[in-house]
Each structure stands twice: as C-alpha cells, then as structure tokens.
UniProtKB/TrEMBL annotation:
Signal peptide coordinates: none
One annotated Gene Ontology cellular component of this protein: plasma membrane
Regions crossing the membrane: 7-25, 31-50, 71-92
All copies of domain DUF218, residue ranges: 104-237
A Pfam family per the record: DUF218
Alphabetical keyword list: Membrane, Transmembrane, Transmembrane helix
Coiled-coil positions: none
UniProt keyword Thylakoid present: no
Gene Ontology biological-process annotations: Gram-negative-bacterium-type cell wall biogenesis; peptidoglycan metabolic process
Record-given protein name: Uncharacterized SAM-binding protein YcdF, DUF218 family
Superkingdom classification of source: Bacteria
Length: 260
C-alpha cells in the first residue's frame, strides 16, 4: 500500500473515530445514561488508534503483525460487517410496518424510567399507545414493565398513570409489573391473561419503538400470540445508538430468549 493511501485511510479512521467519540458525548449530554453508548466511545478510540497507526508507518503495530493474522482479522471484520448489515436491514424493514387489524388486547412495552420520569423511548411508546387506545376504546391495554436500577417505581405504574392522566378508564388497563426484558414482557403478560382469557390464539397489538418491533414480534410469536404491529417513533438523536444496539440484542434473543 502506498504512503498516500496509508495516510488517507489513517485520516478517514481518525475522523470517523472523532465523530464516534463526539456522538458518545452527545448521547450522555442529551440523553442521560444511555445503554450501549459506551460502544461508541470504544469504537472511537479504536478508530483513532488505527488511524494514527496508519499515519506512523515506522511505529505501525499492524505492519509487525504476521500476514496470516492480518488476513484472519480482515476476514472476521468483513464477515461481522456483512452480518451487521443484514440484521440492520431486517430491523429497519420492520420498523415502520403497521397492522390495522383489531386485536383482542394491546401491549405497551416498558422502556425505562429515571426515578419516576419516563425515558424518551417510553414516552414515545406511551404517546402511540394513547393514540391506539383512543382509536380502539373497546380494546384493553396491557402496560408491561417492572422496576429496574435507578427506577423509583415500576415502569407499569408510570405507564398506567400516564394513561389515566389522559382519560383512559382504569378498567381498560391491565398491569404487568414484574418483567425486566422483552421476553419477560410477553411471558408475564401471558401469565397475567390466563386469569382473564384462556384462549390459545390471542391477537395482540404490540406498541413499541420501530427499532424494537422486529424482535418484539419474534418473541411475542414465540410466546404463542398472534402479533399485530404498531410502531412508535424514536427520539432522533438516539437512532444510531438504538438501531446498532438492537442488532446485538436480536442475536441474543434469537438464541437465548426461549419464552414459550
């Protein structure tokens, strides 16, 4: 590789690394403690390090690495990028899919609180849930979410109060307040419904952010529900973070979240 090409690649990675680090800082500034944000910091540091390595050929660590190891690392990186691209395509494709079917129930999936205050993701879900409730007043709404670290109350309690504050009758709200992840949202909600509805083919509209919809539908169907989709918006500054995180969450859920 020529000296000019090395420098060009080096500067490209340094610029990308700086952008990644700046995004990490902005996530923490605008979004508070955002899960997965640390990945942008690590990626930025590695990118800047690689760029500096390319700019200093006399000190290059990579040039001292064996050719076979370099090829192996390159293959791993390329395969990883291909897998990531495929997963992101699947997630993005599902993010804006709406099903207009009338369900037996709807479920709004929890998305974190800071104390008693809803995260922006959860607030978007609640706004979409309110729109659904107003358009389908005969359909009961399950609010699903337990209490996690940094939360003063359960997510379900905050969600229920939001609906009550916006005029939804308490009799139309079913509270599931034990779950700590998406798989449990469906499992514990199914357990909750057993005392209300013993059918095996319950039709359930899922209300969650678009980036979360494909995995939610997959897990809901594993739990035996017929799933209809009503995706909510995502807070724009967090879109890159949430879509990247979701790809890894999808891999984890596909192999390990057995919710039947």
């Amino acid at each position: 590789m020529g000296k000019d090409s090395r420098k060009l690649i080096g500067w490209i990675f340094i610029i990308l690394g700086i952008i990644s680090i700046a995004y990490f800082i902005s996530l923490n500034f605008f979004g508070g403690a955002v899960s997965f944000a640390f990945v942008w910091l690590i990626t930025g540091i590695l990118s800047v390090g690689f760029g500096l390595d390319r700019l200093n050929p006399n000190l290059s660590v990579l040039d001292k690495t064996s050719h076979k190891l370099s090829i192996a690392l390159l293959v791993v990186v390329i395969l990883g990028m291909i897998i990531l691209a495929v997963l992101e395509g699947i997630i993005i494709h599902s993010a804006n899919k709406y099903d207009n079917n009338v369900p037996d129930y709807a479920i709004i999936l929890g998305a974190g609180l800071q104390g008693k205050e809803m995260s922006k993701s959860l607030l978007y879900r609640m706004k979409e849930g309110l729109t659904f409730a107003e358009s389908n007043p005969e359909v009961k709404i399950i609010v699903s979410g337990g209490q996690g670290k940094g939360e003063d109350i359960t997510e379900a309690s905050a969600m229920k109060q939001y609906l009550l504050n916006h005029g939804i009758n308490e009799s139309m709200i079913i509270v599931e307040d034990k779950s700590t992840n998406t798989a449990e949202n469906f499992k514990f909600s199914k357990d909750k419904l057993k005392g209300i509805d013993n059918r095996d083919d319950i039709k359930l509209t899922v209300i969650t952010n678009g980036f979360h919809m494909f995995r939610s539908k997959m897990l809901g169907e594993r739990c035996g529900f017929e799933i209809y989709r009503q995706p909510a918006d995502t807070y724009e500054p967090m879109i890159p973070n949430f879509y990247l995180r979701e790809a890894f969450a999808l891999i984890k859920s596909y192999f390990f979240d057995k919710v039947m």
